[in-house]
Design goal:
This protein is of the alpha+beta class. The protein contains 3 helices and 7 strands, in the order H-E-E-H-E-E-E-E-H-E. The longest helix is centred in the N-terminal third of the chain and has 25 residues.
Amino acid sequence: MRRARRLTSSERWELGLFLIMLVVGCLCLTALLNGNNLPRLFAFATPTAADQPPLVLDPPAQSTPMPLLQTAPPISLNPVAPALPVLSRQPAVEPPQPAPRLVPAKKAAPDVRYYAGHKYIYSKTIRLRVTAYAPDIRCTWPYPGTTTASGLSVKTNRGRLVAADPRLIPLHSLVAVPGYASGAPVPVLDTGGAIKGSRLDVLLPNFDQAKDWGTQTLSVRVYEPAD
């Protein structure tokens, strides 16, 4: 049977150092896993709050409760502007507009004509059956055809005049007949037995011209004396 070899002194030191290191390693591992239950093996182990005795303060001499101090609200370095009240938005009300001024329409200037120093103003327009006559016995019989019913000569106004019914157009009025005297107003100086109602007779220089005129229905403008 083979005997075990005895360890030398250096080997024993190495084995002891190894065991010590092994124990220390186990203790360190245990401390890491449970830090609150460190064993009191090391001088640098810090006591926990549970290990220290509680600090007991002496009770106050009087039992009168101290008033609570109200702490001021913290001062903000960036003050915030107070919120403005929200106003309900209503539709804008337009101010009342002034009533429009009614400007009267300007009256048209009256149609004024002058004849023999007298003023005549336009009165009306009427539709008439217009014929023609001449200072000829064939047209004026039984009258000679030299004087009009107003007492004036047929040569008045250079022979440019008309005969009308005085109940419709008074004597000494003016009429403007289209196609006669270039449309200029001429005096009503004559009447006739056949000129009744809506009839008008224009005076022409001779019988042939009167015959050529024939019968026409025209719109005649009437001017009455203004004075």
